[in-house]
Amino acid sequence: MSSIKVVGDEQLKGELKIQGSKNAALPVIAATILNKGITILRNCPKILDVYHMIKILEELGCKTKWEGNTLYVDSTVITSPIVSEDSVRKMRSSILFLGALLGRCHEVTIAYPGGCSIGKRPIDYHLNAMAKMNITQEFIGEEENIIHCYTNKIIGNDIFLEFPSVGATQNVLLAAVLSDGKTRIFNAAREPEVTELCNFLQEAGARICGKGSAYLEVEGVKSLHDVEYTLMPDRIVAGTYMTAIAATYGDAVLTNFPVRELESVIRTLRKTGCKIDVSEDNVRVSCKKRLQPIELIRTQPYPGFPTDMQSQMMTVLSLADGRSVIQEEIFESRFQNVYELRKMGAIISLESSSNKAILTGVRKLEGAVVKAHDLRGGAALVIAGLAAQGTTIVQGATSIERGYEDICRDLSALGANICYCSENAS
Ligand code: UD1
To answer: Ligand 1, atom 17: nearest CA belongs to which residue?
Structure first.
């Protein structure tokens, strides 16, 4: 386990290219098994979550190889429809193999994912949808915590999602692509990463209408074919680095930037007084005056403000000139960073009945030893370290490596004094 050491109070400057998207790559990697052949994925991020998905592909019998950031997947042969319990425990996104394996093998055995540090995260929408598509479910294992699903034929149906869940929408798409008949998804998630999965599947021969909307229609086809696909840039990494530039009162340019997909974050950051100039896929962020508070930010499904940017925005607002409120609407326990930021001098109170964090901005944070509880929370602490006076140690850097190729490399390129160090460093 490593930590990240940041010597703060350095304004970020320069230019940085945004990596490929984690949340697009993970479902697309699961989708590769729907094709009995070769898939080539360009701009694939080299992050722990992707390595983990690749390990599952290999356990299923696929062959994979890297060339730079291009991932080759040969899924001509699948030898097992079992996703090990260990894999699901390590990464919740492995639940995407539920729909993908059903589509490919008409059978899957997979552990029931537990909650994680940001909330309970059930999968009832996924399972209810599968049941409507002629898929039988049995709970097995000593604690009935393993799900065995099977069918002789997936039959398309109307699926109404209670909430526009990203994972459930993706799982239904994966199961529907090779089904018999038509599947209609009502109240589908509209996140760009759902659209990206649709784009990929269409390129491989799937028939999907309604991309980007809350109503998706999938007409089952007999098979998919080989495809070469370039993954979109990561909107959350882009947003993270925007907030890092803002929190350090820097002036830097981010290239390969997913502008349209990050509109809500751009709009919100502008409210803090940051100047954001957009030209095609380049974004220049500069912040010269004291950050301004924001009355209320609520996390919402796309195109609203993303839950995955909540922690980073909290760091920014902890430095603003006044009172801000953040309301977390997607996950019930995504405020662990409050306790860590307080160690650095932030003034934040929690109103747990309404899932609100109330911030009174301070002029400066102080370096401290803090702990990353989850991926985005960890990145937000690195940002706090960049803005703070003195040295900050962010323990649990592995959480950050789940989604950022090399946060130290990237931020060093913008002039930050940051490096990996051993867990005990202080
Ligand atoms: C969510 C985020 C996604 C983010 C990802 C990782 C939203 C809408 N989704 O996707 O942007 O990238 O986390 O942080 O912002 N739920 C159920 N039953 C289900 C499925 C979901 O009750 O079967 C609930 C969840 O507990 C949660 C909400 O629905 O409160 C959204 O969950 P969902 O979109 O499925 O989560 P992820 O796919 O993990």
So the answer is: 122
CA pair distance 355, 377, nearest whole angstrom: 16
Q: Please state the separation of Cα 344 from the chain's center in Å.
A: 26
Ligand 1 pocket test target in 330, 332, 373 with most atoms within 8 Å of CB:
330
CATH fold for domain 3-19+233-421: UDP-n-acetylglucosamine1-carboxyvinyl-transferase; Chain (3.65.10)
126 lines ligand 1 (CB under 6 A): yes
Q: Is 354 exposed, middle or buried (0-12, 13-18, 19+ CB in 10 A)?
A: exposed
Asked whether the CA dihedral 244, 249, 254, 259 is positive or negative, the reply is positive
Mean pLDDT along residues 310-320 = 98
Q: Return the closest-CA partner of residue 38 out of 81, 83, 71.
A: 71
Residues assigned a catalytic role: 116
Do 163 and 125 meet the contact criterion of CB atoms below 8 Å apart? yes
Beta strands 369-371 and 417-422 are unpaired
Q: Are 89 and 57 in contact (CB under 8 A)?
A: no
pTM summary value: 0.97
Instruction: Say yes or no: CB of residue 167 within 6 Å of ligand 1.
Output: yes
- Tokens read off for 313: 């925005």
What distance in Å separates the CA atoms of residue 323 and residue 29, rounded to the nearest whole number?
Answer: 42
Q: Which fold has domain 22-230?
A: UDP-n-acetylglucosamine1-carboxyvinyl-transferase; Chain (3.65.10)
Q: Which residue has the tokens 């394996």?
A: 101
pLDDT tens-place string over residues 45-65: 999 999 999 999 999 999 999
Task: Give the three-class secondary structure for 62.
Answer: coil
